[in-house]
Amino acid sequence: MTNTIDMQKPLEAVKTLMTLQAATINQSVELQKKAGEDLASFFKTEVEKAKELKTPEDVVKFNVAANTALFEMLKTQGEAFTALATSASKNAMEEMQKMAK
Fold this sequence. Notes:
Layout: H1 8-50, H2 56-100
Helix pairs in contact: 1-2
């Protein structure tokens, strides 16, 4: 009695998961690229604004506004990465559940 092993389903599973991983990595790289560009643009703009400061009060107001804007931007970037991770995890789990059936 000979049993043949069907390797097609496990190979398809690996292929599907690797495709999901590659897509997630590409999206992550794009998010990192955008985050870097946004940070560079932010600091360039803030440097230009800082050139116009005249009084200590202007410096304090500028510093508070710039830090508030920076932390908001970082929060938004963090949320984008969290959304990507959540979506990637959900997609991978859905694929794993399909394969288990």
